[in-house]
Amino acid sequence: MYILLFLSVIISGLSVLYVNISGKNLKLILSFSGSFLFAICALHLIPEIYLSGTPNIGVFILIGFFIQILLEFFSEGIEHGHIHIHNHGRKDNAFPYAVMIGLSIHSFLEGMPLANIGTHSHNSLLTGIVMHNIPIAMALMTMLLKSHISKRTAIMWLIVFALITPLGTFTSYAIDTNIIGNLSSYFDRIMAVVVGIFLHISTTILFESSENHRFNLIKFVVILLGAGFAVMSL
Q1: S-S: 39 plus which of 126, 169, 191, 227, CB 3.0-4.6 Å?
Q2: CA distances from 37 to 33, 95, 197 (A)
């Protein structure tokens, strides 16, 4: 699992160096992953959270939703495939630290549910995160290369980012097994926060899939496929 999370980011990010992937294809990948994540939340994660019996668990879902809104002030929506370059005319030292920090927090939290959910939901969620991270890694690598830093530095930061989601999973595992403290009683609340983040990311992607409120048959089919794969994982 850790290797798959790591390699999915590395391979997709490095593909930008060798393959010219159009913006349309990236949006289709995003649409699929957004639909899959939304369906996973509705079919697997939310029911499991409410079965825990934790009081007011919905409040923590809302907290996660609004946390992602705050994170996007830093990441500038790169989770949705958005790429913004702010070099202000500089040709060096234009590394987007705020974007990297916001995206890393998002990815760290994203990996946490993988540590302690049922095997059935685990496989579906893992697939969804991998699919979600593919366009993110492509957008991140594109942004880094356009930020006037060296290719070697861009690859180094891609590797750092690839380690964040597995780190979130390991940290969650450590919490749940009391390796780093007696915090396992709060795991369901942590899960709820992450679900709120997933809901924000997935719904934003789906809303953005309809440009100028025009019906796009190809994107609609891709969205249905994403939801269909989630349903088949039941």
Answers
A1: 227
A2: 6, 30, 11
Q: Where are the domains of the chain?
A: 2-15+43-82+92-232
48-71 pLDDT, tens per residue?
Answer: 888 878 888 999 999 999 998 888
> Which whole-number Å values give the CA distances from 189 to 36, 186, 203, in the listed order?
23, 5, 21
Whether residue 82 contacts residue 76, with contact meaning beta carbons closer than 8 Å, is answered with: yes
Give per-residue pLDDT as tens, 123-148: 767 877 887 888 888 888 888 887 77
pTM equals 0.80
Cα torsion 32, 34, 39, 44: sign: positive
**Could you tell me the two tokens for 134?**
């593919």
